Backbone:
């Protein structure tokens, strides 16, 4: 597995690692499981894609927002754990806020799922859950959490 080469091959650049917006850590390691706190569409400290999918945010913008969340997950993992220590991505939880009649969440979340497989290859295969919520912090349209199994150093 060569995540850094795969990032370059697919023209992705990892954003700067964001810092938690509250009293928690961005990556919590317990034994050989790493829990990545919710990542939002933040690019180098700039808040992007704020609003409701189906209203202020189009489905196409939702793809980009979820892709950015996934890149932020990978930035946290690279910074706090190191790609070389990943055994596999276990599960992602995707959150979105939308209008009542918007129903493209599976396609939007596919953007993150596909990115993890492109970058981590077989180690990026995962299960997932998708949650529509009334409100996300800072009015972000989407958010993403992840758990990884990692090697014990």
Residues:
């Amino acid at each position: 597995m060569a995540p850094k080469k795969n990032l370059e091959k697919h023209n992705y650049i990892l954003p700067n690692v964001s810092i938690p917006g509250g009293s928690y850590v961005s990556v919590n390691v317990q034994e050989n499981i790493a829990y990545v706190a919710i990542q939002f569409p933040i690019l180098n400290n700039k808040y992007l894609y704020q609003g409701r999918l189906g209203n202020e945010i189009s489905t196409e913008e939702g793809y980009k927002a979820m892709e950015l969340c996934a890149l932020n997950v990978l930035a946290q993992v690279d910074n706090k754990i190191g790609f070389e220590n990943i055994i596999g991505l276990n599960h992602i939880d995707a959150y979105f806020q939308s209008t009542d009649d918007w129903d493209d969440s599976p396609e939007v979340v596919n953007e993150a799922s596909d990115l993890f497989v492109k970058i981590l290859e077989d180690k990026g295969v995962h299960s997932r859950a998708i949650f529509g919520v009334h409100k996300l912090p800072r009015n972000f349209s989407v958010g993403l959490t992840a758990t990884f199994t990692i090697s014990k150093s």
In short: The mean pLDDT is 96. The two ends are 18 Å apart (CA to CA). The longest strand covers residues 86-96. Residues 22 and 150 are 25 Å apart (CA to CA).
